[in-house]
Amino acid sequence: MSRTLLTTSIAYVNADPHIGYALELVQADVLARRRRRRGEDVRFQSGTDDNSLKNVRAAEAAGLPTAVFVERVGRRFRDLATRLDVSYDDFVATGSDPRHRPGVEALWRACAENGDLYRKTYSGRYCVGCEAYYTDAELSGGRCPEHGTVPELVEEENWFFRLSRYEDRLAGLVRSGRLRILPETRRREVLAFVESGLEDLSVSRSVERARGWGVPVPDDPGQVVYVWFDALANYLTGPGYPADAVGFERWWAGADEILHVVGKGISRFHAVYWPAFLLSAGLRLPDAILVHEYLTVDGARISKSAGNGVGPAELAETYGTDALRWWLASDVARSGDTDFTEARLVGRANEDLANTVGNLVNRTVNLVARYRDGVVPAIGVADQLAEPLRRRRATTGDAVDSALDGFDLRRATAAVVAVAAEANRYAELRRPWELARAERDGAARDDLDAVLAELVATCRALGELLAPFVPGLAARITAQCDDGTGRLPEPRPVFPRLTEPSG
After folding, report:
1. Which of 41, 319, 430, 451 has the lowest tally of Cβ within 10 angstroms?
2. Within its chain, how far is the Cα of 192 from the centroid?
3. Are the CB atoms for 488 and 369 separated by under 8 Å?
4. Rounded Cα distance, 375 and 377, in Å
5. DSSP of 145-156, one letter per residue?
6. Measured between alpha carbons, how far is residue 327 from residues 26, 171, 299, 349 in Å?
7. Nearest Cα to 97, choosing from 59, 70, 57, 64?
8. Res 300: pLDDT
9. Angle at 276 between CA 274 and CA 278, to 5 degrees
């Protein structure tokens, strides 16, 4: 059995989660659930990035001790998984998880032993939102290209990592595909950044500037570890680095595949800095960085700092978890940002889940109840007119796998909906209600039995195919079409139409 470690990035906890965070959780959860259903052994890990300066400043603004603030807001991120039906196996809160600090220290010492850490005085422009320095050339009109804020001018003595030493090796990893970056636009972007020349990276901050918050630099109590060096280490500390040798061997060193799901704003940290740290420490690299785009509202990127976030828990409460998960999986572009509106969410759910899938399941169960007293006929003589439907049922699993392997959830969901659409076309072609009338006039039962059997088989297949995307709906479909007793339960809608939002 193959083993896969699948991770999301870990979120800053300076404010409540917004729908952009939900996007990443759901995307990763779809990948994890589909692989599990294929029989793979999957470890799905998420967490919170507790040790950033932006968290400290948010706590100060709230008038709370940082530890109290971080724990309180972090709990909302952890709890969101339940609301979104996310099936992660582990959650690393970097400020409180006892596994984390020893792992950060071990990674730091490994890089130091390889001669890749040194101290120097540095002056640069620092964006607290990104927790990163920018050169003047990287700024847009003197402002951070990600947040639109003017970075702070900072001068202090820090520890630096010899990132420049790894320029050629990183470029080779990306060019060869040993480190896959999807989609292709992001791979080209990362490769261009590396080939433009890498400068050494500041990997510590003074205790004064960090307000004493964070992991102290080993053997240097006046410095704390830079939050990105600290945060990225969670991918190692969750599997057990360095104390749990068995867990670490199983889920990192010996895993068949390691996948990181991240937003485009942090692709550089994951596709450049992180592999360099691992190369320095002599540790195995991830296999793929799967990069998603941003969600926007009225064309503006959704972010906690902008204050335009849409609450995913509230959306799930209003429209249902299935509707929200489906929109995030089926309507978000693979390339380019996607504007969110509640009308788009409702429209997509009604079109796909209510009209196409829900209508098929409801009509099928009702037909079996009306004409066969709820007993599903066995497939006898195959209906030749059902060949396109059988072929689509047989091939859609592979189509979904291919799309998800390419991190294309929109294509995967379209393949599933096409099965239901094909079945609805088949029902209209064969018109089982007319076959039932002919049967009452003395025609053989075989034609109607064959049609009903094909429709039920398709609904059962949809229960399986939909499970990674909308597990709640998939379970309801399975319960309606295969309860194990040989007789279908009383028909009831599996996905009623949603009410369009007012205004």
Report:
1. 41
2. 26
3. yes
4. 6
5. TTT-PPPEEEEE
6. 10, 36, 18, 7
7. 70
8. 74
9. 75
Sign of dihedral through CA atoms 375, 381, 386, 390? positive
In this structure, what token pair is assigned to residue 176? 């060869």
Quick one: DSSP state of residue 464?
Answer: H
* Axis crossing angle, helix 321-330 with helix 409-430, rounded to the nearest 10: 110
Place of tokens 């947040």: 147
Contact status, residue 466 vs residue 416, Cβ threshold 8 Å: yes
Confidence of residue 308 (pLDDT cuts 50, 70, 90): low
Among 325, 266, 322, smallest CA distance to 294 is for 266
End-to-end CA distance of the chain: give it in Å, rounded: 51
Residue of 90, 114, 113 lying closest to 100 (CA atoms): 90
* Residues 127/134, Cβ–Cβ less than 8 Å: yes
Q: Which residues contact 380 (CB under 8 A, 6 or more apart)?
A: 446, 449, 450, 453
- Per the structure block, which two tokens stand in for 477? 């479909």
Tokens of 385: 């007119």
Alpha helices in 38-83, H assignment, sequence order = 53-62, 66-83
**CA 359, 364, 370 angle in degrees (round to 5)?**
125
Measure Cα distances from 337 to 129, 210, 276, 299, 405 in Å: 20, 33, 29, 9, 21
pLDDT, tens digit, 9 for 90 and up, residues 172-215? 999 999 999 999 999 999 999 999 999 999 999 989 888 889 99
Q: Which of 157, 213, 194, 155 is nearest to 14 (CA)?
A: 213
Residue 139, CA distances (Å) to 143, 164, 205, 260, 335 in order: 5, 21, 22, 27, 23
Smallest Cα–Cα separation from 436: which of 445, 424, 427, 426?
Answer: 445
Q: For the chain, what is the mean pLDDT?
A: 92
Task: Please work out, in degrees rounded to the nearest 5, the angle formed at the alpha carbon of residue 279 by the alpha carbons of 276 and 281.
Answer: 110
CA 402 to chain centre: 17
Amino acid at 342: E
Asked whether the beta carbons of 251 and 5 are under 8 A apart, the reply is: yes
**Type of residue at 13:** V
- The encoded tokens of residue 294 equal 């941003």
